[in-house]
Structure formats: structure tokens, C-alpha cells
């Protein structure tokens, strides 16, 4: 697919598309657009201030796909997580369609191939003053499509990888289109999250030992399940079971981190 094709296809979905060579952050631009547009898709070939989860930055050189959907879902505020979990499923479907790779989801919404992160997702939402209704959501997806020209930086090269080996503009637009298309297929059923089973099948944490920090303490537990609100059900060595609502976990009991 080329640039013209994606413009045509997305406008037939009622999505206005804006493509930039470089932006600070597509999430930032999409949020600014929320004052004037109902919904939109913002794409940048490179970001100078890509934002990650938990206030981190997201390495965004040329070679990756960085895009943000401005949406107005009919969704109760407590179901906000369904947007990112659906997006993780959509990214996996797109990767499978366009490659022979086997993508998996690391709870909550990172996409991994062979144990390395290839895609991160950051959803930022705004609510009505009473907090009862979602005003808008900006769903930002950052995928390492092709190897960066100078390789990944030292601090992430052992944990990050790219999806495809060789740069191709066609694959670039195909990937963005397929991801958006797959996500939109789930859009009207975000509230009931009927993609939960698929999300679980794609998760590579179930059955694994993980570690995480809770109330300042290092914990180790085994993952039993992911429940319907996408909480991670874990079992501690003493047999007690707990559900983690959200957060960050690492695979292994401490030394081996993913
Ligand atoms: C993470 O892995 O912590 C989430 C990364 C999300 C990155 C994407 S790239 C497009 C959009 N714009 C941003 O500034 N962030 C998101």
C-alpha cells in the first residue's frame, strides 16, 4: 500500500489522516487535534520526544511506525484498559498477516517477538468533569518496523528488536493500515471485550514465573490467568492468589529480566 492508498482507505472509515516526517510526539499532536476533530489518525516517520508508559521516553528513530488514533469511544471509564489490550491484539494480527513471525503480548500491552519488544502502546484519555464519560482517547502505537540505521542504543539493544529485516515503504503503510483496520473491527465491542480469549492465547506470561515491585517490595509469583478486566491473576509461593490491576512485571525470579 502507498501513501495515497492509505489516505483513501482511512477516509472511507471516516478517519482524517495527517502524516508528518517528524513530530515531537504523535500522541501530543493527536491530543491537540481533539479540540477540533471528532477522530483522526496522526502518523510521524520519526519522533523527537516519543512518550512511553510510566513517564518514560520512547526511542523513535526513522524506521519505526509511530501513530496515534484520536477516538471517542462509548466506553465506561473503568474499561479504559480495553483500548490498549485491543490494540495489542490488533498489532499481533497485523504482524501475522504481513510476516511469518509469531508475536506475543506481554501484559499489559507490549508486543514481543522471540522474547524481545517490537511494539509499545500508550493510551491517554480525557474524561468529562464528573469523570463518568470519556471525552476522548488518544491511542498511540510505536512499532520497531525496520532496524534503525545506527542500531538500537546500548541500553535497549538486549531487549528490543524490529519486526521486518529490510525497510519498505509498502510494508510501512500496510502495517499501519492493518493495525488500524484490525483495531476498528473491535472498536464497537470494546465495552464487552470479546477479544479477551484471543488476548489470553497471545499472552506469553500465563504459566510463567514473574517478578514485580509492590508497595516498595520485590515480589515473585506465578501467573495463573488474565481475568475479564485484564487483571493478572498471580499465585505466590505460600499459595495465596492475587490479581494485579495494572503495572509492570519482569519474567523470571529476579536475575533474568525481560
Ligand atoms: C511504551 O512502550 O512505554 C509505550 C510506547 C508508546 C509509543 C507511541 S509512538 C506513537 C505515540 N506517540 C508517543 O509519543 N508515544 C506513542
Structural overview:
The protein has helices at residues 3-12, 26-33, 81-98, 169-187, 196-202, and strands spanning 16-23, 40-47, 65-71, 104-106, 110-113, 116-127, 134-143, 209-214, 217-226, 232-235, 241-244, 250-251. With 258 residues, it is of the alpha+beta class. The chain has two domains: 3-202, BirA Bifunctional Protein, domain 2; 209-257, SH3 type barrels. Strands 1-2-3-7-6-5-4 form a seven-stranded mixed beta sheet, with helices on both faces. A hairpin with a 5-residue loop joins β10 and β11 (241-244). The model has no long low-confidence stretch (mean pLDDT 94). The structure holds biotin (BTN). Biotin binds next to α2, β3, β6 and β7.
Poorly predicted spans: none
Sheet-strand content, in percent, reads 25-35%
The top level CATH class name of the largest domain: Alpha Beta
Nearest-integer average pLDDT: 94
Q: By helix and strand content, what is the structural category?
A: alpha+beta
Fourth-tier CATH superfamily name of the largest domain: Bira Bifunctional Protein, Domain 2
Bound molecules: biotin
Q: Measured on Cα atoms, how large is the radius of gyration?
A: 18 Å
Strand order in space, largest sheet: 1-2-3-7-6-5-4
Q: Which series of helices and strands comes N to C?
A: HEHEEHEEEEHHEEEEE
Please, how many domains? Answer: 2
Q: Can you count the beta strands?
A: 12
How many strands, which pairing sense, and closed or not: the largest β-sheet? 7 strands, mixed
CATH architecture of the largest domain: 2-Layer Sandwich
Helix content: 10-25%
Tell me, what's the shape? globular
CATH level-3 fold name of the largest domain: BirA Bifunctional Protein, domain 2
Number of helices: 5
Distance between the termini: 34 Å
Amino acid at each position: 500500500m502507498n501513501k495515497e492508498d492509505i489516505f483513501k482507505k482511512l477516509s472511507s472509515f471516516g478517519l482524517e489522516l495527517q502524516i508528518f516526517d517528524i513530530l515531537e510526539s504523535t500522541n501530543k499532536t493527536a491530543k491537540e487535534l481533539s479540540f477540533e476533530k471528532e477522530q483522526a489518525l496522526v502518523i510521524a516517520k520519526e519522533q523527537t520526544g516519543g512518550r512511553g508508559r510510566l513517564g518514560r521516553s520512547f526511542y523513535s528513530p526513522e524506521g519505526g511506525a509511530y501513530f496515534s488514533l484520536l477516538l471517542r469511544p462509548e466506553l465506561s471509564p473503568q474499561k479504559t484498559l480495553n483500548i490498549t489490550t485491543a490494540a495489542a491484539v490488533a498489532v499481533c494480527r497485523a504482524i501475522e498477516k504481513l510476516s511469518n513471525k509469531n508475536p506475543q503480548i506481554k501484559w499489559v500491552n507490549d508486543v514481543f517477538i522471540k522474547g524481545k519488544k517490537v511494539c509499545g502502546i500508550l493510551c491517554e484519555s480525557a474524561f468529562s468533569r464528573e469523570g463518568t464519560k470519556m471525552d476522548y482517547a488518544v491511542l498511540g502505537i510505536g512499532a520497531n518496523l525496520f532496524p534503525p540505521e545506527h542500531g538500537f542504543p546500548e541500553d535497549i539493544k538486549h531487549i528490543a528488536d524490529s519486526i521486518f529485516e529490510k525497510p519498505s515503504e509498502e510494508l510501512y503503510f500496510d502495517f499501519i493500515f492493518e493495525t488500524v483496520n484490525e483495531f476498528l473491527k473491535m472498536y464497537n465491542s470494546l465495552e464487552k471485550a470479546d477479544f479477551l480469549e484471543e488476548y489470553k492465547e497471545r499472552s506469553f506470561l500465563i504459566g510463567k514465573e514473574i517478578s514485580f515491585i509492590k508497595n516498595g517490595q520485590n515480589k515473585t509469583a506465578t501467573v495463573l490467568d488474565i481475568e475479564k478486566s485484564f487483571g493478572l491473576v498471580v499465585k505466590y509461593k505460600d499459595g495465596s492468589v492475587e490479581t494485579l490491576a495494572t503495572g509492570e512485571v519482569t519474567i523470571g525470579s529476579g536475575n533474568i529480566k525481560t
